[in-house]
Write a structure and sequence with these properties.
The protein is of the alpha/beta class and 146 residues long. The chain is built from 6 helices and 5 strands.
């Protein structure tokens, strides 16, 4: 939900890739609401993907307006509260690089994994390295929308 250093790095890679498409970024505060992600990051792009506040849209509304295949989460343990249930219901893959989940949230992750694809790496350094490898694999994968 935040747009910290790691989130910015991942967003930059996704925006610069010819084979992936960053649709949106959701943040907790409204400070950058409706700001263009490429503009914020200083990247030239014909696709002005926007930053939204989690208070502006429910995840259902956001997914209806801007469907996606994968949610990449670099927020906090509470980020799951916003998107997890709806993502699982829709079969949206969840990639979580949240460093630390409570025991309860870890159980939630395991339950979600029974309903949709979930990748969770609690160590951010390992997570970033894994995402680099996963991005290469995902570039070759073909996704179908329901």
């Amino acid at each position: 939900m935040r747009f910290g250093k790691t989130g910015r790095a991942v967003a930059t890679v996704l925006l610069e890739s010819k084979k992936t498409n960053l649709q949106w970024v959701v943040r907790q505060p409204t400070l950058l609401e409706h700001c263009s992600v490429p503009e914020f990051l200083g990247i030239a792009s014909d696709e002005p993907r926007l930053i939204y506040s989690k208070d502006e849209f429910t995840i259902s509304e956001l997914l209806d307006q801007h469907p996606i295949d994968v949610i990449v989460d670099f927020s906090s343990g509470t980020g799951l509260d916003y998107y997890a249930e709806e993502a699982a219901k829709r079969g949206v893959t969840i990639v979580s690089a949240v460093s630390q989940y409570s025991d309860e949230r870890a159980k939630t992750i395991r339950k979600l994994a029974k309903r949709t694809c979930v990748l969770h790496s609690p160590n951010i350094t390992l997570g970033i390295n894994f995402l680099i490898i996963a991005a290469k694999i995902l570039k070759r994968a073909k996704f179908k929308r329901a």
